[in-house]
Specification:
GO terms for molecular function: structural molecule activity. By secondary structure, this protein is of the alpha+beta class. It is built from five helices and five strands; from the N terminus they run αββββααβαα.
Length: about 210
């Protein structure tokens, strides 16, 4: 795969990961009602996310309510919120920086070395964005797992388990990190640049000597 194709593939993967991160951040299905156990399944399914909680009835009606207070939320929810916002901001700046540094764009064509370094900087921003998403989703999933398996008087079918937004977040983090890694590979090694410079300068030196 050529350098330009690798950059384009990395950019598209990172962009798709950023869009999936945005979707995971706004979806309320970070945790949902568990239907495990022998008890009768209720007709109402509960979903909770970073910003709201929803109740879905068997008739198809869904009612959602935003979290009333920021300070009254659990620590893991506040931390996941902050990490997801940081991830989206890093990914947004990564999108802009990567467009400037990619070989398929016309910006900064007169200095290809600086242009490749800008592409690497965009890749680093994408990697950091993916790591923030991974940390936020994993932290929330750890808390859901702890609350599900801890000893409590709450029946099993009244507890919460992983929601679909967590799996979207894990996939988004993987895509973003993969795309950022491909962008980071766009910078040629220093040895290769030195060899190219030596080969270009060698004929002119020979002509001057003759």
């Amino acid at each position: 795969m050529g350098g330009g194709a690798r950059e384009l593939a990395g950019y598209l993967a990172a962009l798709g990961g950023w869009v999936a991160t945005l979707a995971a951040a706004v979806l309320p299905q970070w945790r949902q009602s568990s239907y495990a156990g022998d008890a009768i399944i209720t007709a109402v399914g509960l979903h909770e996310g970073l910003w709201m909680s929803c109740a879905a009835q068997s008739t198809g009606q869904v009612q959602c309510r935003l979290h009333d207070s920021l300070l009254s939320l659990d620590v893991h929810i506040q931390t996941s919120r902050a990490l997801m916002v940081i991830s989206l901001l890093l990914g947004f700046f990564g999108i802009i920086v990567s467009v400037v540094g990619m070989k398929c764009t016309k910006v900064g064509e007169e200095d290809p070395v600086t242009k490749s370094r800008i592409a690497v900087a965009g890749g680093v921003l994408f990697i950091l964005s993916g790591l923030c998403t991974l940390a936020a989703v994993s932290l929330y999933a750890t808390q859901v797992t702890y609350e599900f398996f801890r000893e409590s008087t709450v029946p099993v079918n009244a507890r919460y388990e992983f929601g679909s937004a967590l799996f979207i977040g894990w996939g988004a983090a993987s895509l973003t990190v993969l795309g950022g890694s491909l962008l980071c590979c766009s910078c040629p090694p220093k040895e290769r640049r030195g060899q190219q410079y030596y080969r270009q300068s060698q004929p002119s030196t020979a002509r001057e000597y003759v």
